[in-house]
Amino acid sequence: MMESTTLCIHEYLSTYTRRCIDRVILLFSLNNQLDVVINGKHESVGSNLIVINHSDLYHITNAEQLVELTIPVQQFAEIDQSFFHCYYNFKLINSSEYIKYLTLTMIEQLSRLNDTKSSNIIELITILNKEAKIKQDFIYVPTIQSESNLLNKISVFIKAHITQPIFSKDISNSFYISAPYISILFKKYLGISFKHYIASLKVAVSLAELVHSKETIHAISENMGFNHYPNYTHQFKNHLNMTPNEYRKKFMVLQRIPVKLINEDVSNYIPYFESISVEKPLPSNQMNIELDQLTYKDIAKTPTLFIHIDDLMDIVQSTLNTNLNFTDLSESYLMINNISKLALEKLSFTGLIDFIDSLFSNNVGIAIKIKSRHQFKFIQDIILQFKI
Fold it and tell me: 281 and 212: one domain?
């Protein structure tokens, strides 16, 4: 039988750095005391709901009255075949209060009846898929966001070469640092050794091919860059307490995965159970819109820009015209508001021609505000002077 879905309330909890493999973990604190480091980034969570994805690194630094729900990957994969190409961004969840309600309801039922509805887990996964799932074209490998920029860059290198053999000498040659310094970086900022980081990540990533392909275990170990097949089996068993072949066989068996409560006594938390039976939060309705897939029936009208001036002489004699550049705008005009100052005898004919030509070269037209027939005749006479 595959691993059960488990529920537990920890009065106090702190952990060392772990790789989350073959499961997705949901965490929240009943008294808003939860600090956790996920993939090198510190998250001061408070009352929020946290999701730790399959393949994530996590370290609970401090937690009180922590509710932990651990769901095997198999349950997610049964609902969504693309599970390994996704991850959950907990910051997108709108129905966190309803998820807490479902979780505490299951704990209350298990403590009282030693059983709970399996549909609650399915509903919870459905909410996560609807609100927090981020799809990718490739298998999810977490991005490290530690306080060390160098370590973050190394993790990107590892992510890009995860299916190849990766040794400390490869990192040394690429980043010009020594092997001992690599170990220091991983221990200091992630609390995990370089070898453990690589091996655990390769095992986690290998699950997708293990359950979705018919490749031999030997071929999968080579595809994941393990130097020896026995090494892959050893690392796999070290992290999952079973061989790759045993995991594959059990994963393929469709079965009802039981939900187990780890706590023997939850009487101290009865007030929380009583409160959820009074007010049941409702799930929020959310619509996800893919901006890249939007189609538009109407096209917005191109804007027109008018630059208002009172005296053309001020512009012609200044250097402003050499700095005008409106090539990004389809319609721009120099608007002359006061034609009484448009005295052609004050202007150099050649200079005016050059000025107008420079405007047209920069996609800028000329507009003149005419308020009377007399002004129209005045402008017409000026234009006639330009005729050859």
Answer: yes
Contacts of 210 (CB under 8 A, 6+ apart): 217, 220, 244, 247, 248, 251
Domain closes at, from 228, 262, 289: 289
82-93: per-residue pLDDT in tens? Answer: 999 999 999 999
pLDDT digits 0-9 by tens, 1-29: 457 899 999 999 999 999 999 999 999 99
Which helix (H) or strand (E) element contains residue 58? strand 57-72
Region at 206 (left for phi over 0; alpha for psi -120 to 50; beta for the rest)? alpha
Q: What is the pLDDT of residues 298-326, one digit of tens each?
A: 666 677 887 887 766 666 666 555 565 66
Q: How many domains is the chain partitioned into structurally?
A: 2
Q: What is the pLDDT of residues 60-75, one digit of tens each?
A: 999 999 999 999 999 9
- Rounded CA gap, 364 and 368, in Å? 13
Q: How far apart are CA 272 and CA 47, in angstroms?
A: 14
156 found inside a domain:
no
Q: Are residues 285 and 345 in the same domain?
A: no
Examine the pLDDT at 286 and tell me if it is beyond 90. Answer: no
| Cα–Cα distance for residue pair 18/238, rounded to 1 Å | 13
Give start and end residues of each alpha helix (H) in 161-193. 168-175, 179-190
pLDDT at 284 exceeding the cut of 90: no
CA 383/CA 337 separation, integer angstroms: 17
Q: Give 275's contacts (C-beta < 8 A, 6+ positions apart).
A: none
Rounded Cα–Cα distance for residues 243 and 233 (Å): 6
> Do 227 and 316 lie in a common domain?
no
Q: Which domain holds residue 135?
A: 5-146+192-289
Average pLDDT, the chain: 86
Same domain for 269 and 315?
Answer: no
